[in-house]
Design brief:
heterodimer; A: mainly alpha; Rossmann fold; 2 domains; 4-stranded parallel sheet; 17 helices; 4 strands; globular; B: alpha/beta; Spore Coat Polysaccharide Biosynthesis Protein SpsA, Chain A; 7-stranded mixed sheet; 5-stranded mixed sheet
């Protein structure tokens, strides 16, 4: 894997200065959001080297803002997008197809978007490695390059699938670069508590943040030759977006950033709103254990140092490796301690399932025999299903999902 | 052996320098990371294609040379130095004749230094990381394969998992022409944890790796790796003789490869193979692994065959 700190910095020459390639016509592609410069320079932008910008990080950490900025600088966010809502009134910068695709794979893997289990990383990757997940991903990406040569993929679920998109980049002869957004974990947790009406609880959200960020950082090291990654602090982006974004453009060689026109710049200026950072809290405000708080603080510090120029060093990576191992250990201990709770939950789920099956098969209340038969039939079906090859199981799961 | 002695293995010949001490019992134990372990004999021609990808994605590459006479160790070291990654490569020598697969292997006691399983156990006992790749000296990663190997290496941390993927035969005729075989679908295990439940034991024709009861198999997609077959080389010399793979269902792949190799050597191209010619100035192995295979339309399949679910 190439190492971003070793990557030579290229001068900001315009690689699209050459005459248009045969067959590329500006009026045959879709509309590009933005300014009056768009149409005139669209042909130029389509000739930039193909780049996939993977915007990763914990949800509520400024990924939507970054995607919105890049979009206004004429990088392409696949359409249609997820609609804006009250939690993100300026939009998410997320392709609806990408969200659906990720969501479907997570469901198949039995992984939650904010899963705190270290095991979930292998579960998600096993599903994403299947041909019926890989092929649509690269096909989708190839289609997007018809609308822009620098494509932004952003979704809070993206970190689970960085490898999938890296593979899609290889298959489409493009280069995937990774941007990881950093926001103080207390603000992320606080924002999620607001967003989810405090249903999830701070300890779980802290664990989820650790699992997401420690593994996102690790996943971001696996890059194609010639690719790079960057870390961006949300506070830097809101505080002085021009210097933050120009540095990002230089580090990742994003031509639309390096050659942005003035109208695009003023668009971003209007878009960026320092008031977006609505949640300012501290970990001390939250009911989490001292060990967990220690891990969160150390992880936050190490990641933050990676956002400094030249900060992505072997020493910091080693520190993060140790923190990741410590988190895996902590989680394993917690799982072992709470095993009774997990077993009780499984049993409760089984009972509820049986009761639901009885209610469905005997709406007239005709009794336990029907329920017993349903149990036996379900058991037989499960045993038979376990013997099926994995690809067939996957297809059945798909069909079930569609049904 | 049905039980693995916790304190290691001692060989029948009394070659104590080559007794096996399990790495998890050594001072300091195992460190987090992955090692590709290559047991090689006369792979000097292949290693310059094999090693760069492995060095990019593994924390360490361990080459265990077994009586090569083609400067395999020197070539391996040079390849790593040329990449500026000499510190990631370790080259060791295993100085005993190792039984060839098939009848010769079957006749060799498991604890003999000449046994394939002893050789494998000794080689993997030199690995000090938590995860290992059992890699062959003629297997070349594609661009997508490098990413997959890196990704699944760390995602398998502390898991009882075997990482499997198919390798595709690449029969190399010259620097600019090769024949790619996409017809085989079986995914073999290449990635394994290191630990007391993951040692080798003897099987009929070769060695096998033990696995804990609840191991998960992770199947990776096709198109990640090719296995080089040099048409002017001795590609079956590690077998006792063709009789050793003539009958059992276990050896169907080897019989098939034997038939393809001999057909190509006789100038006949089997219909399931794809002839690939590289652009001038690019070696065909580089072209196949960096460009042709990564960007080939999916599903990957041989000419004139309908797609299969595992494509």
């Amino acid at each position: 894997m190439s190492d971003s700190q070793d990557r030579p910095q290229q001068p900001a020459a315009d690689p699209a200065a050459a005459p248009p390639a045969a067959g590329v016509a500006a009026d045959t592609v879709g509309e590009v959001a933005g300014d009056a410069e768009a149409t005139a320079s669209l042909g130029r932008r389509l000739r930039y080297p193909r780049r996939v910008v993977l915007v990763a990080g914990a949800g509520r950490s400024g990924t939507s803002t970054l995607a919105g900025v890049l979009q206004r600088l004429h990088l392409y966010v696949p359409q249609p997008e997820v609609d804006a809502d009250t939690t993100n009134p300026r939009g998410f910068g997320e392709s609806a197809w990408v969200v659906r695709h990720h969501d479907r794979m997570l469901r198949r893997a039995n992984v939650n978007m904010a899963d705190a289990r270290p095991d979930a990383w292998l579960d998600a990757a096993r599903i994403a490695a299947m041909p019926n997940c890989r092929v649509p991903t690269s096909k989708f990406l190839e289609e997007q390059f018809g609308f822009g040569s620098e494509v932004v993929i952003k979704d809070p679920r993206l970190s689970w699938f960085l490898g999938l998109w890296q593979a899609a980049a290889v298959r489409t002869e493009s280069t995937a670069v990774v941007v990881t957004m950093l926001r103080p974990p207390a603000e992320v947790i606080g924002s999620k508590q607001d967003h989810y009406a405090n249903r999830l609880g701070a300890p779980h959200l802290a664990a989820s943040w650790l699992n997401m960020m420690l593994h996102t950082e690790r996943a971001g090291r696996d890059l194609q030759e010639g690719a790079g990654r960057s870390f961006v602090r949300y506070t830097d982006l809101l505080g002085d977006w021009t210097s933050t974004i120009m540095r990002l453009g230089e580090e990742l060689q994003l031509q639309n950033v390096l050659h942005a026109g003035t109208t695009a710049v003023t668009d971003v200026d209007t878009f960026i709103d320092p008031a977006l950072r609505r949640t300012e809290r501290t970990l001390a405000d939250m009911p989490i254990s001292s060990r967990m708080r220690e891990l969160v603080e150390e992880t936050d510090a190490a990641l933050n140092s990676m956002a400094d120029p030249g900060g992505d060093t072997a020493e910091v990576r080693a520190t993060l490796d140790q923190l990741r191992t410590a988190y895996v250990d902590l989680y394993a201990d917690a799982e072992a301690v709470t095993r009774s709770t997990a077993l009780a939950a499984v049993e409760r789920g089984r009972r509820e399932g049986r009761e639901a099956a009885r209610a469905e098969s005997a709406p007239d209340g005709s009794g336990d025999e029907a329920g017993g038969a349903a149990d036996a039939a379900t058991g037989l079906a499960r045993r038979a299903a376990r013997r099926l090859p994995e690809p067939v199981k996957g297809r059945l799961r798909d069909l079930r999902g569609r049904g | 052996m049905s039980r693995v002695p916790a304190d290691g293995l001692r060989n029948l010949q009394g070659e104590h320098e080559y007794d096996i001490v399990w790495p998890w019992t050594k001072p300091g134990g195992l460190r987090t990371g992955s090692t590709a372990v290559l047991r090689v004999k006369n792979e000097a021609r292949s290693l310059p294609f094999v090693l760069p990808g492995l060095l990019r994605v593994c924390d360490k590459v361990l080459v265990v040379d077994n009586q090569s006479d083609d400067q395999t160790p020197e070539v391996a070291k040079q390849a790593a130095v040329d990449m500026g990654r000499g510190d990631q490569l370790e080259v060791l020598e295993y100085p005993f004749r190792v039984a060839r697969a098939g009848a010769e292997h079957l006749a060799e006691p498991e604890l003999s230094v000449h046994s394939l399983s002893y050789f494998y156990n000794w080689s993997f006992a030199q690995c000090d990381t938590t995860f290992s790749w059992k890699w062959d000296g003629d297997m070349v990663l594609t661009a997508e394969g490098e990413l997959a190997m890196a990704e699944f290496g760390w995602r398998s941390f502390r898991k009882d998992v075997i990482l499997k993927f198919p390798r595709h035969g690449l029969y190399v005729e010259s620097e600019s022409r090769a024949y790619l075989d996409l017809s085989l679908h079986n995914a073999e295990g290449w990635g394994f944890p290191i630990g007391p439940e993951w040692t080798y034991t003897k099987s009929f024709e070769w060695e096998v790796r033990r696995r804990p009861e609840d191991t998960v198999d992770a199947i990776l997609p096709r198109g990640l790796c090719v296995e080089l077959k040099w048409l002017d080389g001795d590609e079956f010399g590690h077998w006792t003789d063709p009789e050793s793979f003539a009958t059992s269902a276990r050896n169907a792949r080897k019989r098939y490869e034997w038939s393809v190799f001999n057909a190509l050597s006789a100038g006949e191209v089997p219909p399931e193979l794809i002839q690939i010619d590289s652009p001038e100035g690019t070696h065909v192995i580089d072209y196949v692994t960096k460009t042709w295979l990564p960007t080939a339309p999916r599903p990957l399949r041989p000419p004139n065959r309908e797609p299969q679910p595992t494509d």
